[in-house]
Amino acid sequence: MENWSVDQVCSWLRQRNLGELVPKFREEEVSGAALLALNDRMVQQLVKKIGHQAVLMDLINKYQQQKSGLESLTYCCKTASPEFPEVISGKNLKSFFARYKTLQWTSSYALPDFPYDVKCILAEKKCPDHSMRIRIIEFLQADMTKYLEGSLYPNSQQYNIVVNALLQAYPFLDEDGNGFLLWKRALKDRFKYVRRPIEDDEQVLRNKCKFGHRRGQTRKSSFAENKPDDVQVQVEEEPVHLEGSAMDVHIKWLKEEYMKTQRNWKEVDNRMNVTIEIRRKMISNKAPLKDILRLFPFLRCPYQLFREFQLLTHMDIYKKTVEILEIYSENILSLYVVRNNPINIMLQENLKRHTEEDILKYMKTTAACLLLPDVFGDDSSLFAAVNEEVKVVTPVLEVKNPFNVNSCEFALYVGREELAQLDDCTMALAALVAAFHVFDIPCPKRIHRTLNFLESLVFEVRSP
């Protein structure tokens, strides 16, 4: 790199998705030697966007530290060889390096150094306003991109690490116990916004073809007739019309805000509070679900679904679900009735491939969640469709690649339509229970024992 020309530097920038910087670097005649000599102040003068500044400085630092990094990694391989003899042969060297980098990311992550005005607000231990929240999220996104070496596709575990670090450093940001979901959703929305300019990139399109891309895809509309135990969600076909100009204003605002990338979640909460009466009236009158979601699209967001449940029951469904799975996961997996279940067999095979404690815990929790209907002798097809197409109209989970941390997908379906994308099995289970209450849907007989068990723990009562 030291001997690169200006053209080679520009080519390197394009390869790192930093093509926007090329005109400025040409104007300033930044060669390879000049690139390596850049400091923070120079980069700030050359590059306007904070995200690009963070990525560029990180790439330069990584190049300068490459030799020392390789030496430390080689040393790690040598010291780890008694535990991982396959590393010596070189057969699994690539996978070992990938795992080492993941662990290093997890153990080394630290919050970025926020700007002075953000520090002042945080020092006062005051909840930031909407504009300040956006600034915090922008810095977190830029910092995560730096740690991910320019990647714009963090996995769920990495989102969790960053948000947990933020809330541990500033506990007052965890508003009413829902801060984790709020900040995580805002951070994911920010990454989606940043990814927009590259959605037509050739490599991105190849990845979508290789790994699949469910968002935006349409499903077949022809299904078999409903089973006897399946409960119809939609009764009336005529759309509901609301009266009152004030209510119309709130509903119009909610629909417009839902289409935005950066959302004012505090105002969303306020307007959802104001409109809850008309929303509950529609649901109790069995209005078509599509009409309810058309007027109140934020019910598609897991956080708002949980919040609606809390307004109705005064219970934090997500927190309760975390407690339930932590207490009962090991007991469920040890039961004889699930020993030969395909989900349990799949779990045991995947446990052999990992040693990281957090990944093992994630996989066991996922398996325990999916095995619940089998424990109670219920119909598991009314609970979750694992690597299959959803065929029932009552609330059900769709699960893809449940034991792959990087490619697992959870979604809640109601009326055979996808209602919400979910981050993990804990959120998925909480959303499933909440959906029955929020949309006032009767529970099918062939799944009632499982849901009765969960509800008895959520509401801390004994099942009759």
What does this structure look like?
- There is one protein chain.
- It is built from 23 helices and four strands.
- The protein has 464 residues and is mainly alpha-helical.
- Strands 1-2-3-4 form a four-stranded mixed β-sheet, covered by helices on one side.
- Helix 5 (50-64) packs parallel to helix 10 (130-147) and helix 11 (156-169) packs across helix 12 (179-195).
How many beta strands in the DSSP annotation?
4
Order of helices and strands: HHHHHHHHHHHHHHHHHHHHHEEEEHH
* Count of separate DSSP helical elements: 23
User: What structural class do the secondary elements suggest?
Assistant: mainly alpha
Mean pLDDT: 77
Unreliable residue stretches:
67-91, 213-243
Rg from alpha-carbon coordinates: 25 Å
Helical content stands at 55-70%
Binned strand content: under 5%
Strand order of the largest sheet: 1-2-3-4
Distance between the termini: 73 Å
What form results from the Cα inertia axes?
globular
Q: Profile the largest sheet.
A: 4 strands, mixed
Brief synopsis:
With 464 residues, the chain is mainly alpha-helical.
How are the secondary structure elements laid out?
Blueprint (H helix, E strand, L loop, with lengths): L5 H10 L6 H6 L4 H6 L2 H7 L3 H15 L1 H15 L5 H4 L3 H16 L7 H8 L6 H18 L8 H14 L9 H17 L6 H10 L33 H14 L6 H10 L1 H9 L4 H7 L6 H12 L3 H17 L8 H10 L5 H19 L8 E3 L9 E5 L8 E6 L2 E6 L2 H14 L9 H11 L6
Parallel strand pairs: 1-2
Antiparallel strand pairs: 2-3, 3-4
Task: Sum up the structure in keywords.
single chain, four-stranded mixed sheet, mainly alpha, 464 residues, 58% helix, globular, 23 helices
